[in-house]
């Protein structure tokens, strides 16, 4: 398979994942919620920088998540002007449910694969993701 064929397959995968997004309005904010849950807390400006998006976009998403009770602002003891964002229990519940839903979907898609095929795929996909992160291949795209 050529690099161009691989890129086409990955674009198709991206479209499939985007179509499979959860129905609730907060689905658009799941990457932000996951980032805060896995690596937070972060300030809104830090989130914008890491995600490479406009700070106003992050501000709108943060406001919606705060209104929904999925994240909250905390006082920063070192800088009274800063408000680190953290995921609430409700936010973790939404994120956990979405991760379980996606795991079930992927499990269904791989149901016909042997355990060896699944393990090989997981290993190769893990290597691919690590190399994408290491090289910054998708940064700014």
From TrEMBL:
InterPro entries: ArsR-like_HTH, HTH-type_Bedaq_tolerance, HTH_MarR-typ, Tscrpt_reg_MarR-type_CS, WH-like_DNA-bd_sf, WH_DNA-bd_sf. SMART domains: HTH_MARR (SM00347). It comes from the Bacteria. SUPFAM superfamilies: Winged helix' DNA-binding domain. Keywords: DNA-binding, Transcription, Transcription regulation. The keyword Transcription applies. Residues 1-130 form the HTH marR-type domain. This is MarR family winged helix-turn-helix transcriptional regulator.
């Amino acid at each position: 398979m050529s690099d161009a064929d691989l890129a086409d397959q990955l674009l198709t995968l991206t479209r499939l994942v985007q179509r499979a997004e959860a129905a609730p309005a907060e689905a658009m904010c799941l990457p932000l919620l996951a980032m805060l849950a896995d690596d937070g807390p972060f300030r809104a400006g830090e989130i914008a920088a890491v995600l490479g998006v406009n700070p106003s976009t992050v501000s709108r998403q943060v406001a919606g998540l705060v209104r929904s009770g999925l994240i909250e602002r905390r006082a920063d003891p070192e800088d009274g002007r800063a408000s680190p964002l953290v995921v609430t229990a409700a936010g973790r519940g939404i994120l956990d449910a979405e991760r379980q839903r996606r795991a079930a979907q992927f499990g269904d898609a791989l149901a016909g694969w042997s355990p060896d095929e699944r393990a090989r795929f997981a290993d190769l996909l893990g290597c691919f993701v690590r190399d994408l992160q290491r090289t910054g291949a998708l940064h700014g795209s």
